[in-house]
Amino acid sequence: MNQFPSLRVRTVRLEPGTLRQLWRYSDPHSPLVFLRNGDGIVGSGQILWRREFFGPDRIREAADAWSKLTSFAEVKDRAKVPGSGLVGFGAFAFSENSQQASVLIVPSLIVGRRDGIEFVTAITADSTKPDASLRDPAPLGPDERAVFETGEMDVVQHQQAVDHVVDLIGSGVLSKLVLARDLIAKLPEWTDRRHLIGRLAETYPDCWNYSVDGLTGASPETLVRVRGREVRARVLAGTAPRGLEEHIDRDIAEQLKSSPKNQQEHRFAVESALHALSSLNDYTDPGDSLTASPEPFLLALPNVWHLASDIRGTLPLDHTVLDLVQALHPTAAVGGTPRKAALEAIDRIEPFDRRRYAGPVGWIGAKGDGEWAIALRGAEIDPDGTTTAYAGGGIVATSVAADEFRETEWKLRPLQDALSSGSIDPYGDALFTGFGTGD
């Protein structure tokens, strides 16, 4: 496979209503999926181009490689909506020290739907003419289940780690740290992994339902989105579980919104994101600068409430969505603050490589547009079926270890239920009454 093949790309529109459940059009064992509310893109067929990246410059090197690849491409796009034309699916490791590869992938066939427009994209790398005709999805295969067990961090180790982080905060080394733990399961190799995506998409339609190179989940958090030159990002910091009864649920939401601790954490996360993006802020028109919502709003998901703020603006000239991804990652909501000290502490305290958990996952188009989420509420599923799920929570000076562990339990619940029982309880551990920050 050439490092930079000359790709030929053809996108055609389909009759509205042709596509049903998009996730069914993905590969049964290596799905490429990025959907929300039933819209998005799904890749299948032969992998025409795949590049791996490592280290501190992994996102920048990916952006450079993508620029070179697209410069050789011939693209004819009759749909002209986000996700049509030439698209690369991507997933990046959380840490620059990770042994897990960050990837960009171009498949030979992509189907998608956006704003009521349905399309199919065919891509070739051997100079032949692409055949942009719709293929029927492969029949659904075996729907096997897996039982999760304790990973490398058990409840005692987690408590010790939380207490240690609280001591570091008390000494002034950190202000906040997001501490994660893991669960391990083994999914039979012959399992059709589309079942997992379908269950998550059905229960969490407002989340980003993603699957790239085995990284699979349903994330509530948009890292950044670029359409044309319009930039949007969403910051989540401050979390509480949903209540089973309406009046309890309403009270929990109001407590979250009025919590000084969570408001402070949220303000910091927003300020951190704006500061990270300021390095790209070369606007000459003040109206183009990036701005955030004046006050956070409550975002309701099936199992949790979040405090959320939207950032909007215009993409600086000569930049792409990956430049914004590079500037934003890792956000304070999944790393901590100060950033450098937090990342060093995560590498030192967590007994595992996070791999691509809490890293960027999404797609980039030929013109530099794209959509990227933070890979939360998900797992790394290896080719042999080994499945590692992760969840974390923001540790601050007043954190209590037992509450922090319980927070990770209900964050792990959606994926755990989807894989082990197939019957997702969207409320998870609804008896939890504390509030969390970060993932």
From TrEMBL:
Could you list the residue ranges forming a coiled coil in this record? Answer: none
Which UniProt key words apply to this protein? Isomerase
Q: What is its EC number?
A: 5.4.4.2
Record has Isomerase as a keyword: yes
| Reactions catalysed according to its record | chorismate = isochorismate
SUPFAM superfamilies assigned to the protein according to its UniProt record, in alphabetical order: ADC synthase
Recorded hits in InterPro entries, A to Z, give: ADC_synthase (IPR005801), Chorismate_C (IPR015890), IsoChor_synthase (IPR004561)
Database matches in PANTHER family: ISOCHORISMATE SYNTHASE ENTC
What this protein is called in its record is isochorismate synthase
